[in-house]
Amino acid sequence: xxxxxxxxxxxxxxxxxxxxxxxxxxxxxxxxxxxxxxxxxxxxxxxxxxxxxxxxxxxxxxxxxxxxxxxxxxxxxxxxxxxxxxxxxxxxxxxxxxxxxxxxxxxxxxxxxxxxxxxxxxxxxxxxxxxxxxxxxxxxxxxxxxxxxxxxxxxxxxxxxxxxxxxxxxxxxxxxxxxxxxxxxxxxxxxxxxxxxxxxxxxxxxxxxxxxxxxxxxxxxxxxxxxxxxxxxxxxxxxxxxxxxxxxxxxxxxxxxxxxxxxxxxxxxxxxxxxxxxxxxxxxxxxxxxxxxxxxxxxxxxxxxxxxxxxxxxxxxxxxxxxxxxxxxxxxxxxxxxxxxxxxxxxxxxxxxxxxxxxxxx
Length: 362
Description:
This protein has helices at 11-27, 43-49, 68-91, 104-113, 129-134, 173-180, 199-207, 209-215, 225-235, 252-258, 268-277, 293-302, 315-327, 330-341, 348-360; strands at residues 2-6, 32-38, 53-57, 95-98, 118-122, 140-143, 157-159, 187-192, 217-222, 243-246, 261-264, 280-283, 308-309. By secondary structure, the chain is of the alpha/beta class. Helix 3 packs across helix 4 (104-113).
């Protein structure tokens, strides 16, 4: 069996793709899986770290203003589709999976024009542009939310939930505390702004370092690449108190296991992971996304009393008041944990791979 998985750009695309690959490999250890990403994007690093081969295409999205890059966009798409076609003819996959992001478009275009079965997986409640454009060409569309018929042909939709790496919910707390050098006597706060970081969360966290130390709270702070150098300097005086910054946390299973409370953006992957791990969380939706879909994701939890919601504009003044109150209130933490885990869809990856195998005819 040969499968190509295409897409990327952010962890919200990459990690579901890896989860799908892992499930295919679990069922069929001899299956050959090839990823196709965009050169210069994070998938070119993260996918090999997960143990898979990846090929890069020279493709990027349209800018919102008129730029030379936009003028070259049709040429780049043509070249990327041509290279994708060569990859398909060389690798000869049984099926292609697209997870969203720039790199999935050329691969899905080339595959569907050759009659190769294709499936797309949409993580968000508001469909991405690439997936919307390609919906009529693919055979099956796996979605995480109900009501996606406004974006896709209803007869192709299967509601599966979002694929999450299976190990994410099985971290051991004692191992996690040893791994990160944490003291079991104190509460731990995990701050994650997505795989690329979040300026609002980073600024609010930097301003709260003294308060966290005074409250006896330990901190695992994923900053993203752009803010890491500054954050490392800011947190250095507090290292002895268990406050530390990370550019990227590879062992998220251990990070979740160590955390008593999580502050997070509300991207689709983050929400799915919080549900699966059953963590008490404060969600701060990013305002810089299409149709404000992160707010919709956050409301899906906060409306069921499964998470707390602080808006991006409120974060500077209110976020750490809310976080410190929640860290001190164990009954409230337990209530949130109980509610959020009820929303988990732990079998999403299995259902997606079931659909993929049906396309192949296995």
